[in-house]
Each structure stands twice: as structure tokens, then as C-alpha cells.
Amino acid sequence: xxxxxxxxxxxxxxxxEKAYGPSPADGxxxxxxxxxxxxWESNAEGNASFDVYVGEVGGPLVQVAAxxxxxxxxxPTLLKPxxxxxxxxxxxxxxxxxxxxxxxxxxxxxxxxxxxxxxxxGTEAVATRGTNFTWVCDTPGALYDFYLGTNPVSPVLRALNxxxxxxxSDLVLEPGTTYYWKVVVKGSGGE
Length: 191
Hints:
This protein is mainly β. It contains no helices and 15 strands. The protein is about 0% helix and about 45% strand.
């Protein structure tokens, strides 16, 4: 007669899905570029890890981290301000790699650059003597180089290492002439 052995049981590994619930959310705007943290959700269990890919939209995604064992990652480098980026999380388990969806976001503008100029861009009827130029810049301890001239590509350096965001010109400007001006922001100590 046949001998019937015991019945054994086992359970297969759970189905691992793609990472989901991204932050920054797909299509998000105004994302900080100085310190960007990526967060995501995952149903992967056990010894799963994640590979993080980031790149500018239209360019290749570059692996910036491998074998991350949490569902968040902070970039150690700065992103460019006012730029479209794409990112992806690949889930890696024993013998399995699940390529994630690609999500996009747009970084915030750089408020450390000079903004809110006076006279403003396109202003007409500016005084020809003693013109006061001002701007706003959110870089603590910055020094400023001020440029002014009639050539939009290469205005002339007029002041070096200004410590405040303003400059009063001692030039006599030509009436009815279009002038161009810009400010170069340098870190504390003129760097």
C-alpha cells in the first residue's frame, strides 16, 4: 500500500510593485534646488533597496544613489534653479529589479540672484545725472560688482565689491540713449 506523507506548505514572495507616492510629486513646481529630498512609498518587504536616478528633462537620467535602504534620499549636490528635472526610483530585491515610473518637477528660481531692479527693466525717462540703481538680493554677506553701458552683451564694470545692493552713478548719461545694467553677486569676501 502507498504511504502518504505529511502535507507541507509554503508562500511565495509578495508581488513587488513600483515605487509610488513621489515627493516631489509628479509635475510639482517651486522645488528647492539647494537641498532636494526625494521621498517615495513602496510595498517591497524584506531586504529591498532602491536606486535613485535624476536628470534634466530631455537628458539622461543618472544614477545618483544605489542600494538606499530607506524610502527617502537627499541629494548631496545642488540642482540648477528654474529647471525641469526628472527622477525615478528602481526597486531592487533579491534577483529582481523593478524599474520605476519617471516623475518630473521644476526647481524654484534663485532668489539669491539680484531681482526687483530700480530703474526696472524697460524703464523710460531715467535721469541723466545722479541715477541711483538698487536691487534686492537674498545672499547674506554678498559683495556686488556693478556694470553699466550701452552694449547689452558687455556693459562696463563701474563699481567693484559694493557691500550694499545699490549704486549711485556719477556718470552723465546721454539723453535719449538706451543703457543696460547688471549686477554680479559674489559670496562673502568677494568669492
